[in-house]
Amino acid sequence: MTVRVRLAPSPTGNLHIGTARTGVFNWLFARHHNGQFILRIEDTDLERSRPEYTESILQGLRWLGLNWDEGPFFQTKRLELYKEAVQKLLDQGLAYRCYTTSEELEALRETQKANGLAPRYDNRHRNLTLEQEEAYKAEGRSFVIRFKIDDDREIVWNDLVRGRMSWRGSDLGGDMVIARASTEGIGQPLYNFVVVVDDIDMQITHVIRGEDHISNTAKQILLYEAMNAKSPEFAHTPLILNMDGRKLSKRDGVTSISDFQKMGFTAEALVNYMTLLGWSPPESTQEIFTLEEAAKQFSFERVNKAGAKFDWAKLDWLNSQYIHSMTVDKLIDLLIPFWEQAGYPLTEPRDRSWLEQLVVLIQPSLTRLVDGVSISQLFFTETVEYSDEANTQLKQEGSTAALKGIVSALENIPQLSESLAQDIIKQVVKEQNVKKGLIMRSLRAALTGDLHGPDLIQSWLLLNRIGLDKPRLLEAIKTH
Ligand code: GLU
After folding, report:
1. What angle do helix axes 436-448 and 399-410 make, rounded to 10 degrees?
2. What are the 10-residue block averages of pLDDT along the chain, 480 residues in total?
3. What is the pTM of this model?
4. What is the CATH code of the structural domain delimited by 1-72+238-325?
């Protein structure tokens, strides 16, 4: 048997972290078994579905490296298939037209509520006679299609994550609507139904999805039976929780993959982190791996039942590990869009080799790619603003003289090197008989506007290459 799994997102929002994580588990399982990963866009909710969300989903999956083997298939293009399947259930007497009006349903719900009962449909139109149907039609009533669910049915499956699951038909809310209201012909088929038609048609062997779908699974198993098809295996993955233990939601700020991208997480770190959201490798001390490496070891035996807490500190840590071990070339390419976004000039004299030198300097300090904007700002602007500390430093006795000494030493040097920079500092120490520390701090304050930051000599060399060191020294002298 070839393993065939699918991701079935609804394009009613940008690619969500929960959907992406479900995608990760599907992908890992498919690759582990040399199977197929299929992408299906569940766009039957016409009011809420948008093409730009489909685009965001496709882009997000590509960015994360979750390549698919078949699809994307769009449910809106498959309506005929679904309607035929509904018709078949009608013909077999497994489904029926229900003419109950929304007012009647409301009244039923009110009575149930008054009696402390859970809301459910009472199957009142299950056995209408032809005459009764005609009478309702004559009244101009529309009808939905309901699938019969016997209250005393027991539905059991062996969930790959949660073990034995058991539901009673009576827990499912009565006969279930599988097609929307219509006055003629079959209305639009609904989620629980079309999923099953598709999963049968696409020969899906394993349905891997979030645990919020568990009650759907119970209903869907009955539909597989009704359509004479073998149920796939089911694996319900744990929810993603925030640090307070509640389901991660929009209120937590960031939920879509594009948000994480904008915040400066790398695809590799994010996908690595998502792999660990609910799964752990057998060698659980190993936390950094590629998708391919994880796929070799992936199994549902090591997927937790309990919700997975989203841990920003851990994600940051992973991200920094990826950034620190990345080639300089790749990191430049990843930083360029962030610098462009910030409006930084990326033309001469800031050529590629200058960018390389800059990135070598800042790489160890980055946790997220966006940090590359703030930390390198001083290299992209003409002037710097002085922090209070820098101002105090520049007003220290001997500071201005030291800077003047540096400026005059620079006169004879067309291009600075590390050893020349060291020589200049030594020379000024000697000439002016001041402490090296004072010179270094004053130089840093003048060049960067601050007393903290990346390596001073390297920063100086970078500024020298673009002709900004001398003007900044002169500016500091003039203003202090
Ligand atoms: N379209 C469903 C969702 O976005 C997924 C359905 C499924 O995986 O069966 O939640």
Report:
1. 70
2. 97 95 98 98 94 97 98 97 98 98 97 96 97 96 98 97 97 97 95 97 98 96 98 96 86 87 97 96 87 96 94 97 98 98 97 98 98 97 97 97 96 93 97 95 98 96 97 97
3. 0.93
4. 3.40.50.620
Between the CA of 33 and the centroid of ligand 1 the distance, in Å, is: 22
Q: 42 CB less than 6 Å from ligand 1?
A: yes
Could you give the CA distance from residue 36 to residue 148 in angstroms, rounded to a whole number?
33
Select from 114, 203, 207 the least CA-distant residue to 160. Answer: 207
The 10 Å Cβ neighbour count of residue 300 is: 18
Q: Which of 6, 41, 61, 213 to mutate to test the pocket of ligand 1 (most atoms within 8 A of CB)?
A: 213
Give the homologous superfamily in CATH for domain 79-193: Glutamyl-tRNA Synthetase; Domain 3 (3.90.800.10)
What's the 8 CA to ligand 1 centre distance in angstroms? 5
For 138-168, give one letter per residue: b (16+ CB within 10 A) or e.
Answer: eeebbbbbbbbbeeebebebebbbbeebebe
